Amino acid sequence: MRKVFFTLFLAVDFFCSAQQIQVPSLKEAAGFSIGSSIRFVPFMQDDVLRQLQAHHFDSYTAGSDMKMYQIAPREDVLQWARVDSIVAYTQKHNQRLFGHTLIWHSATPRWVEKKAKKNPKWLDGFMKHYIQTYVGRYKGIVDGWDVVNEGFNTKGAGYRTASIWYEAMGEEYIEKAFRYAHEADPDAVLFYNDFNIERDTLKFNSMMKMVTDFQRRGVPISGIGFQMHIRMDIPNEVIAYTLQRAADTGLQIHLSEVDIIFNTHDDSKGGGVQLYDRLTESMRLKQAQKYADLVHMYQDIVPKSQQYGITFWGFNDRDTWINRFFKLRDWPCIYDEQLNPKPAFYGFLNALDAP
Ligand code: 9MR
Fold this sequence. Notes:
CATH superfamily: Glycosidases
CATH topology: TIM Barrel
Bound molecules: ligand 9MR
Number of strands: 11
Largest sheet: 8 strands, parallel, barrel
Shape: globular
Radius of gyration: 20 Å
């Protein structure tokens, strides 16, 4: 049955554009929240994107609009206008707003880095003020937060030490960020979020050590975010193993930035390695299977009460960050460059258990 449905939609896909076709809604087919990262300004001017977003997603993650460099561009300035517009949009469309991200080395404004380098003691007070003003302002409105993003090394074991937060405050900065956020909104779902944890078991183990220590000591963490920027050749067995161990903590599990690439890279800006120049039909079908595998693993391994949801990092190949960042040509998303659903979309959709 699944196969017939899949083939049927492939045929429809071939003749129709996104505007002409009403495909089934992902959020209606899923038993958990489905989201995508969105860049608010181009999004609000793009009718097709807005139509697709409202149709498929009941969770909204800002691609950049909620990061520290946007909120605190200069000393003594906190600007909320963009976030307020996003809140208005999500409330109008009855969507969950997810806060990405409070503390991320890569989104720290230059002025904060400079000031903390001169006076490391200042940073803790600034962090407390920033988090509590921000989380307090959107208390009961932002459902959950990536409290700290990418606090562990890109590869292998250990904390990311090349971060002003670590340099000025030591590893305790992570715990403090969670405590400050929890004080400001005790009901917000608080995540630690990172990449490659589904595949790099040394990195995963470092994170798990921190998470279980937090749980033992009552540091208010409520979830683990697997960014899940994966490649076609990342073995399902490894993903299943790490997901299982994370789920065993009893915490919420969010697949927070999903995309699936064919080519590879060294994790650095411009570090793409172009292995495939074009997307063949057989690649499209294999990608559909991988998206389906991911959904099955999430549903089978993560207990329902811990399924915070699955969020795509942009849902179409036209806007994906992958090509810009790694200097690649890849096709990681469920919608193609013309904003038509790909086999990956149907692979994902058909794997979803009804709510
Ligand atoms: O996709 C985001 C890009 O548009 C921004 O310029 C960049 C810096 O803010 O962040 C990108 O999103 C990253 C996310 O916040 C954290 N995980 C990795 C994502 C891709 O770089």
